[in-house]
């Protein structure tokens, strides 16, 4: 493994041609659209990677990434560029709709499958699980299956741990904290861990949304929020087609509050802002 670049040695500034190469790679492999105004972001986030790899320039780092046969360097690059901001009950209108409009129609089902398609550090899929347990009174019917995927290995590792500081849980009610979390003590004072009986309902896996994907069964609900804002229109269209194909008839797609399917051909019906439904009952 190469030695990190010494702190007193600076790496060469990111050039326009290097930025273009990195942007093309991110778009080709991950669908990420890095516009020129993202220059400073790329410089800041990849600078540490360049230095840690023992490189003196972004060009040298780029070469190492594309030549790495294991693919690990590419994953590290996207981990650095991806924005993993999230929190519990983010965009609460979606969870209100889930509780009041969707889940009451699911009580007679034997199985309920929901997909968190960009789960980041886990707050979204855990909130989904809490909502279902809240609506169904903690009963085992229907059997809940939450699939949580993300492109970032780093974010997934944090999600699987299910451990969060108290400040992250301020949007949750005291009742939910008691019902779904274990409170830490000693050196873990001020931290909370999702209870194992809740965590085991969630299946975490790494998935690149711009690549082909399939699931053994369709989903009643898919959350794919604040992801498409990073994609161009062509990539958005392909993704929405795949998401729609992964929904069961009558299933719902939730997208981010800053996103819209306007101008994208798709087979879904508009229900309200950021909520769409696949035809059927």
Quick tags:
Chemotaxis Receptor Methyltransferase Cher, domain 1, alpha/beta, 281 residues, 38% helix, 3-stranded antiparallel β-sheet, Rossmann fold, globular, 7-stranded mixed β-sheet, 10 helices
Could you describe the largest sheet, including whether it forms a barrel? 7 strands, mixed
Average predicted local confidence, pLDDT: 88
Strand percentage lies at 15-25%
CATH class of the largest domain: Alpha Beta
Helix/strand-derived category reads alpha/beta
Unreliable segments of 5+ consecutive residues: none
Give the count of structural domains: 2
Helix content: 25-40%
Distance between termini?
56 Å
**Secondary-structure element order, N to C:** HHHHHEHEHEHEEHEEHEEE
Cα radius of gyration in angstroms: 21 Å
Concise overview:
The protein has 281 residues and is an alpha/beta fold. It has helices at 16-30, 39-52, 58-67, 72-81, 92-102, 123-135, 153-161, 174-180, 196-199, 233-245, and strands at 111-116, 143-150, 163-165, 181-183, 191-194, 202-206, 219-223, 247-254, 268-272, 275-278. 38% of the residues lie in helices and 18% in strands.
């Amino acid at each position: 493994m190469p030695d990190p670049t010494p702190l007193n040695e600076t790496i060469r500034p990111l050039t326009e041609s290097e930025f273009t190469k990195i942007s093309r790679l991110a778009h080709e492999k991950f669908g990420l659209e890095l516009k020129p105004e993202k220059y400073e972001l790329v410089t800041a986030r990849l600078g540490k990677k360049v230095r840690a790899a023992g490189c003196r320039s972004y060009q040298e780092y780029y070469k190492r990434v594309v030549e790495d046969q294991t693919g690990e360097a590419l994953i590290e690059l996207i981990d650095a560029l991806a924005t993993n901001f999230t929190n519990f009950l983010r965009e609460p209108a979606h969870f209100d709709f889930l509780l009041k409009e969707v889940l009451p129609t699911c009580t007679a089902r034997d199985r309920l499958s929901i997909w968190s398609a960009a789960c980041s550090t886990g707050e979204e899929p855990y909130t989904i699980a809490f909502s279902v347990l809240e609506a169904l009174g903690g009963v085992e019917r229907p059997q809940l299956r939450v699939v949580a995927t993300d492109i970032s290995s780093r974010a997934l590792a944090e999600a699987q741990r299910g451990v969060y500081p108290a400040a992250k849980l301020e949007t949750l009610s005291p009742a939910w904290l008691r019902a779904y979390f274990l409170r830490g003590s000693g050196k873990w004072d001020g931290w909370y861990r999702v209870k194992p009986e809740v965590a085991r309902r969630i299946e975490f896996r790494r998935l690149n949304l711009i690549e082909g994907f399939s699931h053994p069964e369709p989903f009643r609900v898919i959350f794919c929020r604040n992801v498409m804002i990073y994609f161009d229109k062509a990539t958005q269209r392909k993704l929405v087609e795949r998401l729609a194909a992964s929904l069961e008839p009558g299933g719902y797609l939730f997208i981010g509050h800053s996103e819209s399917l306007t101008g994208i051909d798709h087979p879904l019906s508009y229900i309200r802002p950021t909520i769409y439904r696949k035809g059927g009952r």
